Amino acid sequence: MSVCKRVVIDLPGDLAGKLEKLAKTEQTSHEELLCRAAQAYVVYCKHRNVMGKLCEQMKKGYEEMGSINITLAEEGLYGGTSKK
To answer: What is the DSSP-derived secondary structure letter of residue 82?
Structure first.
């Protein structure tokens, strides 16, 4: 079991009310809901960072392949002859 650390936060009244209502509906505590929300946000941020890096790598790859793809397309279009 992991060691817990107490964190005190201030929430706007309307958000605190929604949290209280949701805790009752889910039959759990405010602490458990906030813990689950924090865990989900950490996973979301990790996923977003990985996807951002992947998109940058893909963009770089497409840019690097651009001239090769044009050459291949022209060879197919002109039967391997130059369009001069």
So the answer is: -
Tokens of 56: 């940058």
Q: How far apart are CA 71 and CA 36, in angstroms?
A: 52
Tokens of 64: 């690097």
Say how far apart CA 50 and CA 44 lie, in whole Å. Answer: 10
State pLDDT tens for residues 7-46.
899 999 999 999 999 999 999 999 999 999 999 999 988 8
Q: Residues 11, 22: contact at Cβ < 8 Å?
A: no
Report the candidate in 31, 29, 28, 51 with the shortest Cα–Cα distance to residue 39: 31
Per-position DSSP letters for 29-57, written without gaps between them: -HHHHHHHHHHHHHHHHHHHHHHHHHHHH
pLDDT at 80: 59
- Lookup: tokens for 63: 């840019």
Q: Which residue type does 10 have?
A: D
pLDDT above 90 as % of the chain: 40
